[in-house]
């Protein structure tokens, strides 16, 4: 089966035998974008979070056949080293990562949250950012989410 979709603003067509293959494995193994991580395989931990049409999706449980015609953004497409996304910039400023394995998923979930709610409260963060971090950097992540909201809102004002 052939499936065409956009990944990080580039059109991609893949040929795959099983359309139920999780999008995660297509992104990592076929497209060689290694920033999206495998954690649990059950959509529970959030390490595999990416965006499908600007919505946060747990890609380990998202069959690739549903990606047909969709716009997919991975952590590699969120920003660049020269022009980081406000979430990426805030993560650096607040020195969030410890081991860093889960952080791409947290950043993608946060970017999606800020698209929906540009000034989240602590309660909004608790209800929407439900990924799991074994290193428990939640306090630094909360600070970074608030900082990313500030940066994002400042960028919007400049536009």
If you had to describe this structure to a student in words, what would you say it looks like?
Strands 2-1-5-3-4 form a 5-stranded mixed beta sheet. The protein folds into 2 domains: 77 residues, Ubiquitin-like (UB roll), CATH 3.10.20.30; 73 residues, DNA polymerase, domain 1, CATH 1.10.150. Helices cover 39% and strands 14% of the residues. The radius of gyration is 15 Å and the shape is globular. A hairpin with a 2-residue loop joins strand 3 and strand 4. The longest helix is centred in the C-terminal third of the chain and has 21 residues. By secondary structure, it is of the alpha+beta class. Helix 3 crosses helix 4.
**Cα end-to-end separation:** 42 Å
- The CATH architecture of the largest domain can be named as Roll
Strand content: 5-15%
Task: Choose one word for the global shape.
Answer: globular
**If you compute it from the alpha carbons, what radius of gyration comes out, rounded to the nearest whole angstrom?**
15 Å
Number of strands: 5
Integer count of domains:
2
Biggest β-sheet: strands ordered side by side in the sheet: 2-1-5-3-4
**What is the helix/strand order?**
EEHEEEHHHHH
Assembly type of the chains comes to single chain
CATH homologous superfamily assignment of the largest domain: Beta-grasp domain
């Amino acid at each position: 089966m052939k499936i065409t979709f956009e990944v990080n603003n580039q059109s991609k067509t893949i040929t795959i035998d099983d359309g139920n293959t999780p999008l995660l494995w297509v992104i990592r193994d076929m497209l060689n974008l290694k920033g999206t991580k495998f954690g649990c395989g059950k959509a529970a931990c959030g390490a595999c979070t990416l965006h499908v049409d600007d919505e946060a999706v747990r890609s380990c449980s998202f069959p690739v056949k549903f990606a047909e015609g969709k716009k997919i953004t991975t952590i590699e497409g969120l920003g660049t080293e020269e022009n980081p996304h406000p979430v990426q910039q805030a993560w650096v400023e607040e020195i969030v990562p410890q081991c860093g394995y889960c952080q791409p998923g947290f950043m993608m979930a946060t970017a999606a949250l800020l698209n929906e709610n540009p000034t989240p409260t602590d309660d909004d963060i608790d209800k929407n950012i439900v990924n799991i971090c074994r290193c428990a950097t939640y306090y630094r992540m909360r600070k970074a989410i608030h900082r990313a909201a500030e940066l994002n809102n400042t960028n919007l004002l400049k536009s």
